[in-house]
Design brief:
9-stranded mixed beta sheet; globular; alpha/beta; single chain
């Protein structure tokens, strides 16, 4: 890293944005002209791999440098504990830190905001004081009890439920200008800083501002199209080709709004003279499916539209170019530490795991992903010493599963337990091949170089394809390094049987949120 490297980092996550709907990735609609300009001075990574297909575990990995099975934050354990965060490390090193989003998962009750000097969540239903007060205490109490865990599963679904039913025409996109404004205020008041921003526009439901809907989804009634992925995935509702076109149009409009707001922020940084002093990271945490593989949303699978995510990074040590080598989002933790010349590795509290900066995982280092030289490799480094493989983990989306069950039951549909909806999954992916281990249905494997749409499953003939065999072996080594393969996912039933064990404050909070009568 150069000695005159930027002293600030802007880290932007475009929630739920798939790469092939962005102009820099060849999309034929002008959704992101601002990002196209940004890409002209950044490195565009074409083979970035997310560690999971949804928000909570991905952000926990971004903030800790750990894989999901290492940090343990998922819907079965919906908060981050026992790990020192990137923000805690940077704050201790003297950097001003801030986190602004409208994502219901990135809040004090999940501990993802631990360490940020300034943070605000613009989610319209749950204000910050509630999230850091009685709800957070009730959350922790319930998750620490085996019997009350099922109620916690309900509580964690509040973000999804409220976003679906209460956003209406005032969805997360309406909060994005406020997120950008608050980021500007933070930068204006700071010296050396780290700002993390999550923009939720492209997450269901899609209710884009009128000017963007008029361009990308003219005449589409956003209240008439299917905005509930569980209705489709359960089989309770069908979607024809015309409706998929309308859905994709609304999605594109949401992405265009993100682009306009990011352009506003980038232009402001340039006007203030902050641009050259700032490392800028722009990525998605995961993508979205719109009918591919008969699925909608970002649950229940590890197909490439979800886990091969966009990533663009601007830094003096990176050329304005395109790269096709494997990159993992886990590496961004180390890249930020490297950009700010912070070593990391010091626990914020006794007993916590704190990951030190590893040059083989920093995009800025000459020996990036030269894992064969690492003395104490992490699971991914041990499983793929050549650095060519990225790893993905998916541990049951119990909230979405419960909603799926409810939609199916309402339509008189029985979902078999031996289906992908109840499964845990892990994948090993390199640019030419992918292998997916699934615990309730047969494994899947694809030759991505020959079959980018993942239409021909080659798992049954793994021995006949050297590339598929290589990623399967890497996955087996990864599983061994993290403690073994997932087998036999437990029941995902969510009931109210444990309500009687809750104290009055927790019961009242659930009543306020509409879970109890």
């Amino acid at each position: 890293m150069s000695r005159d490297a930027p002293g600030n980092v802007l880290f932007v996550v475009m929630d739920t944005v798939r790469a092939d709907h962005l102009t820099p990735y060849g999309y034929d609609r002008p959704t992101t002209p601002g990002l196209a300009d940004f890409a002209s001075e950044a490195t565009v990574f074409e083979e970035a791999v997310a560690p999971a297909p949804w928000t909570l575990p991905v952000h926990a990995s971004l903030f800790t440098g750990l894989y999901p099975s290492q940090h343990g934050a998922d819907q079965e354990n919906p908060y981050l504990e026992g790990a020192t965060t990137l923000a805690e490390t940077l704050s201790a090193a003297g950097y001003d830190t801030a986190c602004y989003s409208s994502n219901a998962w990135i809040t004090p009750y999940t501990h993802l905001t631990d360490g940020f000097d300034a943070q605000d969540n613009f989610f319209e239903v749950m204000p910050g004081d509630l999230l850091s007060g009685p709800l957070a205490r009730a959350w922790k109490t319930m998750n620490d009890s085996d019997r009350l865990r099922t109620i916690a599963d309900k509580l964690v679904s509040l973000g999804n439920v409220a976003h679906e039913y209460l956003a209406g025409g005032e969805g997360a996109d309406s909060k994005t200008p406020a997120v950008i404004d608050r980021t500007m205020e933070f930068v204006d008041d700071s010296e050396d800083w780290f700002a993390f921003v999550n923009l939720m526009d492209a997450h269901l439901p899609y209710h884009p501002p009128d000017e963007f809907a008029a361009e990308f989804a003219p005449g589409v009634d956003d209240t008439a199209v299917c905005q509930n992925s569980k209705e489709y995935n359960s089989g309770a509702r069908d979607i024809d080709d015309d409706e998929w076109d309308d859905i994709r149009g609304l999605y594109d409009a949401e992405i265009a709004h993100i682009d306009a707001q990011l352009t506003r922020l980038f232009d402001w940084l340039k006007e203030r003279g902050e641009w050259d002093d700032t490392t800028v990271v722009v990525c998605a945490d995961h993508g979205e499916l719109h009918g591919e593989h008969d699925l909608y949303g970002h649950e229940f699978c590890l197909y490439d539209p979800l886990v091969n995510v966009p990533l663009m990074v601007k830094h003096p040590d990176l050329t304005a170019d395109r790269r096709t080598d494997t990159v993992e989002l886990v590496d961004l933790y180390h890249t930020v530490l490297d950009a700010l010349d912070v070593a990391g590795g010091d626990p914020a509290a006794p007993g916590e795991t704190a990951v030190a900066r590893d040059p083989t995982r920093s995009l800025l280092a000459d020996d990036y992903r030269a894992f064969d030289a690492v003395d104490d490799p992490d699971p991914g480094q041990a499983a793929a010493p050549d650095g060519a493989v990225g790893f993905v983990e998916y541990s049951r989306s119990v909230v979405e599963l419960k909603q799926l069950e409810e939609k199916a039951a309402g339509a008189g549909i029985d979902i078999p337990e031996d289906s992908r909806f109840y499964a845990r999954m892990r994948a090993a992916r390199r640019p030419d091949a992918k292998y997916v281990r699934i615990d309730r249905i047969p494994d899947e494997a694809y030759r991505l170089d020959e079959d980018p749409g993942e239409t021909e499953d080659r798992a049954a003939a793994v021995g006949d394809d050297p590339a598929v065999r290589a990623v399967e072996r890497a996955l087996a080594d990864f599983e061994s390094a993290v403690g073994g393969a997932w087998t036999g996912a437990a029941d995902a039933d969510v009931t109210d049987d444990a309500v009687a064990d809750m104290d009055e404050e927790a019961q009242e909070r659930l009543r306020d949120l509409g879970y109890l009568e």
